[in-house]
Amino acid sequence: MRVAVVVFPGTNCELDVAHALRSLGGEAELVWHRETDLAGFDGVVLPGGFAHGDYLRTGAIARFSPVMGEVMRMAEEGRPVLGICNGFQILCESGLLPGALIANRDLAFICRFVELEVVDTGTVLTGAAEVGQRIKIPLNSYEGNWVDPTQSGRIALRYVDDPNGSQGSAAAVANDLGNVVGIMPHPERGTDELLGSVDGRILLEGFLRSLVPA
Amino acid sequence: MRVTVEITRRPEIADPQGTTIERALHDLGHDEVRSVRVDRVFHLEVAGDDPETVKSRVEEMCRQVLANPVLEDFTVEVGR
Predict the structure, then answer these.
(1) Chains A, B: CB contacts under 8 A, how many?
(2) Residues paired with A2 in a beta bridge
(3) Active site residue A92
(4) Which residues, including other chains, have CB under 8 Å from residue A91's CB and lie 6 or more apart?
(5) A205 flagged as catalytic
(6) What is the pLDDT of residues A66-105, one digit of tens each?
(7) CB A172 within 8 A of CB A156
(8) Can you tell me the ipTM of this complex?
(9) Is B17 on the interface with A (CB under 8 A)?
(10) What's the gap in Å between the CA of B65 and the closest CA on chain A?
(11) Is A19 a catalytic residue?
């Protein structure tokens, strides 16, 4: 089972994501955003950071990076596609997820642990968790305030105490099929006792478990 | 041709920056301010002779990338 971890110019969480996936038994490979062939990969992660400097809008330039054609293909094939933080923003901009991410309600960069509650286990990120389960992982974002005028998003995880104004207190959102998920907090930063939490493991384990051979 | 693109966030979408500026203006005694919205303006130089063609090309750019259709509307003005 091979997972592509996409690196855009300005991505900065790719090593953390790859390390976390490997520590859970997954096979993760970094893939530059100019790659146009992801054949042989069973899933893909768009990690956090500031792709293309976050210029114009977060994710607005990244969605046109050459690799995104393959990310779209994998999403359409039902393969697991996960966007974390900036990756979530890219998935919204690309239309793979509904809504958009705007500045936090209080216009502050939020950088702290947050508590999440599992709402929906029918997604590739939450499949190993249980409904109602509490998960504590770090949130590190300025544009983390999810809005969805169409009200069509499927909320997978919600903040117990909404920090940023996100609609429905959504912390993670999925498409209808549940194979494309965006999450604003960082599960990879909660996978080792040294980091202060191991709660992110259950999410990434669920993601790895959802992979089927390409 | 010079083209001015104005991208505006739809009224129903919150604009925390605008709200903060509005509050600051009130604090400074400018009580007549009813609302503040912060939007974006792009100035483009576009090759072309026909203003209508240039306008429709730039509108296409707005739909494709300059505006986010989930949140924003746009207006395109072609000058000289």
Answers:
(1) 41
(2) A27
(3) no
(4) A46, A59, A81, A83, A97, A180, A182
(5) no
(6) 999 999 999 999 999 999 999 999 999 999 999 999 999 9
(7) yes
(8) 0.81
(9) yes
(10) 7
(11) no
